[in-house]
Amino acid sequence: MPEAVRVARLEFEPSGYSLWLAGDELEYLVSLDPPMCTCPDFSFRLARGRPAPCKHLRAVLRAAYWGAREEMRLPDSELIRVLAEGRPPRASRPT
Ligand SMILES: [Zn+2]
């Protein structure tokens, strides 16, 4: 039984760079390359020296393979801010 984690893909234009949001409120920023999640669980695993995908990363991997359910397109200018703040854009609304 797969964990129910909400996932949305952010696609930035015109670069085509993509990032993911995951979590009940899409509160975590997830990257596949390199594999990274901003949730406490992922940080904890890293700090313990046992890097392993958290449930968000696993959900994003599934969505990347099977197709994302939610997608957002944002200008590249937003990408800078998302990366700098390490969290999703406040005004983002899944389409
Ligand atoms: Zn996570």
Describe the structure using short key phrases.
95 residues, alpha+beta, 5-stranded mixed sheet, 3 helices, 5 strands, globular, binds zinc ion
Write the layout of secondary structure elements.
Blueprint: E1 7-13, E2 18-22, E3 28-32, E4 35-37, H1 40-47, H2 55-66, E5 70-75, H3 76-85
Parallel strand pairs: 1-5
Antiparallel strand pairs: 1-2, 2-3, 3-4
The protein binds zinc ion.
Structure description:
- The chain contains 3 helices and 5 strands.
- The chain is α+β, with helices and mostly antiparallel strands and 95 residues long.
- The protein has one domain.
- It has a 5-stranded mixed β-sheet.
- The chain is globular, with a radius of gyration of 13 Å.
- Bound molecules: zinc ion (ZN).
- The site of zinc ion has 8 residues, from helix 1 and helix 2.
How many helices? The count is 3
Major beta sheet summary:
5 strands, mixed
Cα end-to-end separation: 27 Å
Determine the fraction of residues in helical runs and give it as a percent range.
25-40%
Bound molecules: zinc ion
- Structural class, from helix and strand content? alpha+beta
Looking across the biggest beta sheet, what order are the strands in? Answer: 4-3-2-1-5
- For this structure, the quaternary state is single chain
Domain module count: 1
Low-pLDDT windows of residues? none
Briefly characterize the structure.
By secondary structure, this protein is an alpha+beta fold. It has one domain.
